Amino acid sequence: MKVLFDHQTFTLQEFGGISRYYYEVIRRGIDDPDMDVDVSLFFSNNAYLNKNTYQATRPFVPGKNFRGKTRLMYSINKTYSLTKLKISNYDVFHPTYYDPYFLKHIGKRPFVVTFLDMIHEKFSNRYASLAQDKTIFNNKKILLQESSAVIAISESTKKDIMDIFGTDGSKIKVIHLGNSLVLSDKKEERLHSHPYLLFVGNRNSYKNFQELLTLAPELVRQYDLHIICAGGGRFSESENAAIRQQGLHTHIHHFPINDDTLRNLYENAEIFVFPSLYEGFGIPVLEAFACGCPCILSTGGSLPEVGGDAAMYFNPEDGNSLYNCIRSLMDDSDSRKQLAAKGYERLKLFSWDKTYEQSVNLYNSIKR
What we know:
This is Glycosyltransferase family 1 protein. The protein is an alpha/beta fold. The protein has 2 domains: 2-178 and 351-366, Rossmann fold (3-Layer(aba) Sandwich), CATH 3.40.50.2000; 196-348, Rossmann fold (3-Layer(aba) Sandwich). It is 43% helix and 13% strand. The chain contains 15 helices and 12 strands. It has helices spanning 8-12, 17-31, 69-87, 119-123, 128-131, 136-146, 155-165, 209-223, 237-245, 259-268, 283-290, 303-307, 319-330, 333-347, 352-366, and strands spanning 2-5, 36-39, 92-94, 112-115, 149-152, 172-174, 196-200, 226-230, 252-255, 271-274, 295-298, 312-314. Helix 8 (209-223) crosses helix 13 (319-330) and helix 11 packs across helix 14 (333-347). It is globular, with a radius of gyration of 21 Å. The N and C termini lie close together (11 Å). The relative contact order is 0.12. The mean pLDDT is 95.
């Protein structure tokens, strides 16, 4: 069976959980002798699918940033994708984001679309940055109607799709994601010498980083804790201003990340804190589990579904709830160890191999 993936996510993301997910599925498909996997990607600056891991692609203007760079690369890759759609023989098409540009070009061949979350639909009335994307709701609606099958990455996301769009649940297959971090056999030196809480990924809007920042002065006073933000880009001017205003510039730090850096930060953190108001899955939870890092998670979206009994939970709309959880774990090292042990066990329920196997089963079920 031949499956064709398109360019979208790999054009739009250099790092992140979405492109990591597709890369892990594609990599296993390439290695599977019973599968023929192709990707319509001419240029890629993605950290996972690039010229080192997929020889058919090449970097786009490496080392130089200019206005419109991503838009130009998107246009080129979209044109290349359309060409691939017209000339390639494939059994199933799997677009990697929500642009329905391909619908007029695939004929009656089946396609499956993955719904990663319903953040725009649930929070665009609250955050202007989400409201600015006027097309994503309609695009999702079109893809739900036209697709042969839909993958939801959590039961929570499936429920949201059904509630918001009224989609028949029988069309939606829940396929959980996996973890890519593996513990190192050798003892690595800590990247940060002080005790710290770890925050991973983007800090914008619904990610609710501001809640943790608000608590920081008291956490510094009581425990002399530092806060490390891993990935998500450098601090913005407004973030730096807020940090300086609270006198926290010596206690809040940003680390750019790769897998080695991220693993080190998880392994040595006192606690991983995930204050997001909503997640469609939450790969960082599995990463923390893999590295033995105790987790405090919000009750937003899918996080309780992923974390199970291996995490402590708080109400993300209540700052006191988060503070009480942090204080509870900081005052009880045994509880932190117990959560870390539970995390190792919980992680066994999730793997990219399972994600791939279930995806192939779905492809086979819609193949004509």
